[in-house]
């Protein structure tokens, strides 16, 4: 596909890197020549320097022949304008990143009026991700499939865990819980394990299971933490804004520290239940005064990555039940993970995964759809929710043990008529199923690709 | 430094060379000559490259410095191995001479140490001309075209091999860019062969080798008297025009293909390039009118000489060394300018020269009005200060190398005209110069030291200085 990407920031470059690997023809447009040069140096893309909403620039980037335009520049308005202009020039599909909550209604209108294919809101997605983490504080990362029926949870095996040195087969024998270990990250390398795989301390393990079973599993593993009742949030930006409505729904009491008085007023106006404090969240005194020592969880969600990391590291010394750090620059993630921060939420990485899902679904076949796509285990493994719409030769009606699956693919879960099936060798994929597939390979865009 | 990946890429390039050597071997078979020199060379190439290619490294990441090292060493290695058939066949028994001849071929220079060309084996002469065609577009571009690249870092390779001050892709995908470039190159070469065969009535073998030498803007000929030996005005016109054609930026042909005629018409470099051809041809023709019987012959010969020097090919249809000083001075100037960026030609490149002049005018403006802010534009776009600096330093290094080389080869005792024009002819990838190295002369008389120095000059010119300088710079090889 011919894809134009407007905006060469961290999201733009992450999407570029991913989509070039999937063999699309990418053109990147950014006003900064340095940003374009940096991307063109590391990815096989075409760079155009200029404003993405400028018709002459769009023409130069061949917007008339493009299949998709992805507008992820820093400005919502520019992004919307880009998409409108590109549609006029003949671009088939457009995607805009729109973050301002005030535009959310407008976007619904524009989607039909301007034929905007879809909009992405990274902060909204990040807020949802954080609220999931608060429900299961033991996990370092949680994604859900099938409207919350299936949980995909990541957690770290500690040295004191009873399952160190135990094979997955033995682990399942000992526990009477329906779950499947679908990926293990060890020493920076992702493995899709078989039954003989032996768990070691320090592994990051990814499992699929249902909501209720997950609690049972954490209890059995001895890492269960009671749900969070109150949180302290550093930073009152858009993520916090969206998160507060999640927290209100889950009856979690929230305290927010934000430096900017205007932002504080906005938050206070919309969320009467939350405590809003106008103070500098990088001051130790301010954090302690706001109750850092007694809170269940600390969420560092300010706009400055470094401040978030520093505050989180300090909070870590206080033995809180959960610490979540928001990091925007993807290149920082590895640094801060190595410094001991476990739950890192990155709005940009989930945005990139979201766009990837959309691009793949454009190339989909009729017989199956990609309903969700997550990048797990340090973005090294993909988890996809695929719907099987038709009978497919070589896939449906065959027991999994007889199916010649691709080596890097694992069927993690099958949802049939609302029932969760953790597959065994005898399980059969049928028409109408929703299948959750885990893969270390790339370019899975339909159920056909697993064989 | 990722040595294993460098080794892998170099192995692939040597394998490609082995494959390319099959063509002259077939020619040798057809003419009933011995194929042993080619078979031996192919065997050696396969042996040498087998190990690094079979063990493909896990870590395929390469950065700018590895890109430069691969490009520079690829050209050197290809020449070192490509010289073997000349030695094995006994055509050029001395290895240093053979390397000189091969580098001259790959870098599309066309400077020769052979005193008598006619009568040499057809297969060997075919290889000699074919190196021009291979070197014209570059073997790394060829590798990018045929190999699937799994990372974007291959851009470093393209950038180090394609000439010009600003390097850009034609389409988003590098592999497609390389394919398009080679597609245009092959199509134009085939058209030239066809025209030489039908319109000029040249024999098939001669059409082929002359087309290779023209397409690569090389200049090796299979006749002692170069193109002049054919006494064929039609062939002179066709080759003359095609030398100009191959000196045009290949992006122009791509723009023609996608029907962006306006952009072609407005292209600054193309206009300046064609203007230089027109003005130089007129001046040379007027200056040499008395040397010819008819005005037609004067125009034809004047145009051919201008085309051959400006496009840095190096064919000849007359001994222009006997021309008046003014005409010779024009040719000397054209030697330095060279053709367009992104073509198969050498020289400083028209766009670089115009950029230098624009920068000079800007500096003057700035001195007159110290607070004025001025930008330099090229092809309608603002040229970054970085590009301007790079261009200025490129031109300075270029002239430093020319002056030092002229000084060093002067030890051999030839006259100044010979020495200066020999260095210019080599660094600009032209071939013949003036006086002893003029169109009827050759480079055989130089000492080995001078030959090695001139070989270095040819490589420096073809790869636009930096890759070769970087390869020999100590900072690159330091551990930290």
Q: Which structural traits does this protein have?
A:
heterodimer; A: 451 residues; alpha/beta; Rossmann fold; Alpha-Beta Plaits; 6-stranded parallel beta sheet; 14 helices; globular; B: 480 residues; mainly alpha; two-stranded antiparallel sheet; 23 helices; 2 strands; 64% helix; 1% strand
Helical region count of chain B? 23
Mean pLDDT of chain A: 85
User: What is the average per-residue confidence, as pLDDT of chain B, rounded to a whole number?
Assistant: 90
The domain count of chain A comes to 4
Roughly how many Å is the radius of gyration of chain B? 22 Å
Rg result of chain A: 22 Å
The rounded distance between the terminal residues' Cα atoms of chain B is 10 Å
**DSSP summary, beta strand count of chain A:** 22
In CATH terms, what is the fold-level topology of the largest domain in chain A?
A: Rossmann fold
Q: Which class of secondary structure composition applies to the elements of chain A?
A: alpha/beta
Q: What is the CATH superfamily of the largest domain in chain A?
A: NAD(P)-binding Rossmann-like Domain
Poorly predicted ranges of chain B: none
Beta-strand residue percentage of chain B: under 5%
- Work out the oligomeric state of the chains in this entry: heterodimer
CATH architecture of the largest domain in chain A: 3-Layer(aba) Sandwich
Identify the strand order in the major beta sheet of chain A.
Answer: 3-2-1-4-5-6
């Amino acid at each position: 596909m011919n894809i134009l990407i407007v905006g060469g920031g961290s999201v733009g470059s992450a999407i570029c890197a991913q989509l070039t690997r999937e063999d699309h023809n990418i053109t990147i447009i950014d006003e900064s020549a340095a940003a374009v040069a940096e991307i063109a140096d590391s990815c096989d893309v075409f760079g155009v320097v200029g404003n993405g909403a400028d018709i002459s620039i769009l023409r130069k980037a061949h917007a008339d022949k493009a299949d998709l335009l992805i507008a992820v520049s820093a400005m919502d308005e520019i992004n919307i304008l880009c998409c409108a202009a590109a549609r006029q020039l003949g671009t088939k599909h457009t995607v805009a990143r729109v973050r301002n909550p005030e535009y959310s209604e407008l976007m619904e209108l524009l989607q039909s009026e301007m034929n905007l294919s879809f909009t992405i809101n990274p902060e909204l997605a990040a807020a949802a991700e954080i609220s999931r983490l608060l429900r299961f504080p033991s996990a370092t990362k949680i994604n859900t499939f099938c409207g919350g029926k299936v949980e995909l949870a990541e957690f770290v095996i500690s040295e004191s865990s009873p399952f160190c040195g135990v094979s997955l087969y033995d682990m399942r024998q000992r526990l009477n819980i329906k779950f499947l270990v679908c990926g293990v990250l060890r020493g920076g390398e992702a493995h899709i394990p078989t039954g003989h795989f032996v768990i070691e301390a320090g592994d990051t393990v990814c499992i699929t299971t249902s909501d209720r079973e997950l609690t049972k599993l954490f209890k059995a593993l001895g890492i269960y933490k009671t749900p969070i009742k109150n949180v302290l949030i550093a930073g009152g930006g858009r993520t916090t804004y969206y998160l507060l409505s999640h927290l209100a729904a889950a009856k979690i009491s929230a305290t927010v520290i934000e430096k900017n008085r205007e932002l504080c007023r906005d938050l206070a106006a919309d969320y009467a239940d939350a405590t809003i404090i106008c103070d500098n969240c990088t001051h130790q005194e301010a954090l302690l005064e706001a109750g850092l020592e007694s809170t269940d969880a600390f969420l560092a969600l300010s706009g400055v990555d470094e401040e978030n990391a520093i505050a989180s590291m300090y909070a870590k010394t206080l033995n809180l039940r959960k610490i979540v750090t928001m990091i925007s620059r993807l290149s920082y993630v590895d640094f801060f993970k190595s410094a001991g921060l476990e739950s890192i939420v990155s709005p940009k990485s989930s945005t990139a995964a979201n766009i990837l899902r959309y691009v793949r679904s454009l190339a989909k076949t009729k017989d199956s759809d990609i309903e969700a796509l997550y990048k797990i285990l340090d973005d090294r493994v993909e988890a996809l929710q695929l719907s099987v719409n038709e009978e497919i030769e070589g896939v449906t009606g065959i027991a999994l043990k007889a199916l010649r699956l691709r080596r890097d693919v694992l069927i993690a879960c099958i949802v049939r008529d609302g029932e969760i099936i953790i597959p065994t060798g005898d399980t059969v994929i049928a028409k109408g199923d929703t299948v959750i597939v885990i893969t270390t390979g790339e370019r899975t865009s339909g159920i056909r690709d697993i064989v | 430094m990722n040595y294993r990946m460098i080794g892998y890429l170099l192995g692939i390039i040597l394998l490609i060379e082995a494959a390319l050597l099959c063509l002259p071997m077939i020619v040798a078979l057809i003419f009933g000559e011995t194929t042993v020199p080619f078979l031996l060379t192919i065997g050696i190439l396969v042996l040498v490259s087998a190990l690094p290619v079979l063990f493909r490294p896990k870590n395929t990441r390469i950065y700018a410095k590895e890109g430069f090292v691969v490009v520079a060493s690829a050209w050197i290695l290809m020449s070192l191995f490509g010289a073997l058939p000349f030695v094995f066949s006994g055509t050029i028994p001395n290895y240093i001479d053979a390397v000189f001849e091969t580098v001259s071929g790959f870098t599309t220079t066309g400077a020769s140490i052979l005193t008598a060309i006619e009568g040499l084996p057809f297969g060997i002469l075919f290889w000699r001309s074919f190196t021009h065609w291979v070197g014209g577009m570059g073997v790394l571009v060829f590798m990018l075209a045929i190999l699937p690249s799994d990372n974007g870092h291959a851009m470093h390779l393209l950038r180090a091999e394609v000439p010009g001050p600003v390097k850009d892709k034609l389409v988003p995908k590098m592999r497609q860019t390389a394919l398009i470039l080679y597609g245009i190159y092959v199509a134009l070469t085939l058209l030239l062969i066809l025209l030489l065969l039908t319109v000029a009535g040249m024999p098939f073998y001669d059409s082929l080798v002359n087309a290779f030498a023209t397409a690569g803007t090389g200049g090796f000929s299979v006749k002692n008297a170069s193109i002049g030996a054919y006494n064929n005005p039609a062939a002179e016109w066709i080759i003359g025009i095609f030398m100009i054609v191959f000196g045009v930026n290949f992006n122009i042909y791509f723009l023609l293909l996608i029907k962006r005629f306006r952009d072609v018409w407005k292209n600054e470099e193309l206009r300046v390039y064609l203007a230089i051809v027109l003005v130089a041809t007129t001046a040379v023709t007027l200056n040499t009118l008395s040397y010819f019987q008819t005005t037609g012959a004067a125009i034809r010969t004047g145009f051919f000489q201008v085309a051959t020097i400006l496009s840095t090919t190096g064919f000849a249809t007359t001994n222009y060394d006997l021309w008046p000083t003014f005409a010779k001075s024009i040719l000397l100037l054209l030697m330095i300018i060279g053709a367009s960026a992104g073509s198969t030609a050498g020289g400083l490149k028209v766009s670089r020269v115009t950029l230098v002049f624009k920068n000079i005018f800007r500096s003057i403006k700035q001195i007159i009005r110290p607070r004025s802010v001025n930008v330099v534009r090229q092809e309608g776009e603002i040229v970054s200060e970085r590009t301007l600096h790079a261009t200025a330093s490129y031109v300075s290094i270029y002239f430093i190398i020319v002056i030092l080389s002229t000084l060093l080869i002067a030890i051999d005792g030839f006259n100044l005209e010979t020495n200066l024009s020999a260095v210019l002819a080599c660094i600009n990838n032209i071939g013949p110069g003036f006086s002893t190295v003029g169109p009827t002369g050759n480079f055989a008389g130089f000492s080995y030291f001078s030959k090695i120095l001139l070989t270095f000059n040819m490589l420096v010119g073809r790869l636009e200085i930096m890759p070769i300088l970087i390869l020999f710079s100590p900072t690159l090889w330091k551990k930290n």
